Amino acid sequence: MSDKRAVILLSGGLDSATVVAMAKADGFDCYTMSFDYGQRHRAELQAAERVASDMGVIEHKVIGLNLNGIGGSALTDSSIAVPETAGEGIPVTYVPARNTVFLSLALGWAEVLGARDIFIGVNAVDYSGYPDCRPEFVEAFERMANLATKAGVEGQGFTIRAPLQMLSKADIVKAGTRLGVDYALTVSCYQADEQGRACGKCDSCRLRAEGFAAAGVTDPTCYF
User: Fold this and answer.
1) Which of 182, 171, 172 is nearest to 55 (CA)?
2) What is the pLDDT of residues 146-182, one digit of tens each?
3) Which residues pair with 119 in a beta bridge?
């Protein structure tokens, strides 16, 4: 084990699995973190565990939250339907403050571990328009992290790494394929069933399918 440690947010989807592979390729000892936050299905948590095991991370941690307690998203409130067509503006699949909360908890674990790097798989090119996926958000959170922590105040600052930020979904698939990511282990669908099979209709399914097609890579997604 080296002193080069990183905490990586791992949702179980295509993007975050690719980020783990990138961090490993960069020589980091990887500690992955997922969240049981009241999302529609547990299939993504099971996918995250598969990915973490397959990639040999040092430790995989699942944190329980109750974001469905505040609702406001189709991913945490079963009374709000997941849209099957892309609309205008920020979609109802946006989960209020999700990445802010997730990164905050990753920051806490990183400080405990002595890790100085936190990876997140946000993307500002092929994405659904979420405000907490923008470069401005990542930069602002990094500034906050170094103001709000003992490590930051003592000069052992944190870096928030978003290596997929400006990549197309096709570029992400190509990068992960080169690094040996087994995308059959991942789940991207907003409303996958208990077996992890995808709907093939939601925005996340559409972006994933388009990415594989544009990359010229066979999509291993199973659909219901």
Assistant:
1) 182
2) 999 999 999 999 999 999 999 999 999 999 999 999 9
3) 8, 161
Annotated binding site for ATP: 10-20
What is the Cα 138 distance to its own chain's centre? 13
CA-to-CA distance for 52 and 65, rounded, in angstroms? 20
The topology (CATH level 3) of 5-215 is: Rossmann fold (3.40.50)
Q: How far apart are the C-alpha atoms of 218 and 212, rounded to whole Å?
A: 6
Binding residues for Zn(2+): 189, 199, 202, 205
Condensed to tens digits (0 to 9), the pLDDT of residues 5-23 reads 999 999 999 999 999 999 9
At CB < 8 A and 24+ separation, what contacts does 78-82 make? 78/40, 82/40, 82/190, 82/191, 82/199, 82/202
Domain extent listing, the chain: 5-215
Question: How far, in Å, CA of 84 to CA of 67, rounded?
Answer: 23
pTM for this model (two decimals)? 0.94
Sequence ranges of the binding site: 10-20, 189, 199, 202, 205
